[in-house]
């Protein structure tokens, strides 16, 4: 990881900025906020923008990116854009359709990175979570290696420069890596990662395979009751984190972000507050000591905010394994 140039080299030769801007917003937040926040992020210096079919906001994110290109702030090649294939498109014949839908909404001709969003297939559907007449989510059985092969074809077609996975455990990653006839290794695995869930074993495994770990929910998480137990602890109020923030005269959020960068983890920061977006770019302006890093390692409690409990019965549910 090259912190001086703020980027990391991926195993396919492309480069990914080490600080990314996450664009997920709860449905009750007005979509125009997404346009505004993404523009602020680009103006503040973010060059890595992370979205997904699931977020249902790629139209707005694309609009923000294109407007910053149009006003001369950035060129298309300065922006590293990530999208993700959602579970209802895992059948090999549907993968490209999902990516092409994203590209149409974005009005871009390629994404820089496309991920398999979660390792759990759902029945093909117009809706995000297809349910049967009893309201039960309809699972699908799809060989993830076949989904991966379809994603490799998207890379060959120039629709995605790099391809990777998200929310995969070690066993599922290994299955892709050991796939007969593997053409491209995943460049990254994007997972929940923060001081309460530092993913150290998964990080070591990914490093051994030249796969970048990308951290989402790096600041804890938004209190979105659809995904998160509202009684879960608030990471940024942790006394240890707050004491380190005071020591470095920084915010607890900046300490949490810096922690990831110094571990060799690419980190996504999500906010729709202009001041906090500008503040988060200051992560490159200070350094944590080895002692600080040890103290933060000590906060790990294997606590997961995003458990996806409603999919826990899925045969490919990833969070039952240790890592």
Automatic annotation (TrEMBL):
Catalytic residues, chain numbering: 55
Keyword match Cell membrane: no
Any GO molecular function: chlordecone reductase activity
Domain NADP-dependent oxidoreductase, residue spans: 19-300
Family annotation (InterPro entries): AKR, AKR1C, Aldo/ket_reductase_CS, NAD(P)_OxRdtase_dom_sf, NADP_OxRdtase_dom
Residues reported to bind substrate: 117
Keyword annotations from UniProtKB, A to Z: NADP, Oxidoreductase
Pfam families given in the database record: Aldo_ket_red (PF00248)
BP-aspect Gene Ontology terms: cellular response to jasmonic acid stimulus; daunorubicin metabolic process; doxorubicin metabolic process; hormone metabolic process; monocarboxylic acid metabolic process; steroid metabolic process
Site (Lowers pKa of active site Tyr) location in chain: 84
Similarity-based family: Belongs to the aldo/keto reductase family.
PANTHER family in alphabetical order: ALDO/KETO REDUCTASE (PTHR11732)
Name used for this protein in its record: Aldo-keto reductase family 1 member C4
Organism whose genome encodes this protein: Otolemur garnettii
